[in-house]
Amino acid sequence: MRIETLTFEEALARGRALPWALVRGLSTVSLGPVPAELPPEEELIELRFFSEQEEIRVFRREDVLCAARMTEEEGADLLDSEMKPENRRFGKKMLLRQTVDYDEDGQARLSSPRLCGWEGGGGHGDE
After folding, report:
1. Which of 3, 30, 47, 49 is in Cβ range 3.0-4.6 Å of 15 for a Cys bridge?
2. Dihedral sign, CA of 14, 112, 77, 117?
3. pLDDT for 94-116, tens place per residue?
4. How far apart are CA 113 and CA 126, in angstroms?
């Protein structure tokens, strides 16, 4: 998996162009289409904008908002999986993707999963 470091501003600009988002703030959590309004910066815990091709993550490190863009390398071996949220207000399912890397002995190692799809109701609390 290819990881590119972004500024917070770059992440917001690129992320708003993607179809879905997982937004975690101090007092809110939402999953579904990218919302028109995001929590204020001081309340953000994590943002994950995503599409089938990429995920843009915003996260806190030492109280500073950092960001990264994750995409697959061309020809990479991929492992897709599906999760069903226990709380139906977050939709019917989330799709996750991992890259399979092999070491010199042929042993496989999985990358951290990235979000690559969402299916559900209206999202953001709507059934």
Report:
1. 49
2. negative
3. 999 998 988 899 898 888 899 99
4. 26
Q: Output the pTM of the full model.
A: 0.85
Look up residue 114 and give its amino acid.
Answer: R
Q: Which of 123, 103, 100, 98 is nearest to 113 (CA)?
A: 98
At 54 the pLDDT is 95
For residues 3-9, average pLDDT = 95
Contact 57, 6 (CB under 8 A): no
Measured CA angle at 33 (ends 18, 45), to 5 deg: 85
**DSSP designation for 17:** T
> In Å, how far are 2, 24, 120 from 38, measured between CA atoms?
27, 10, 20
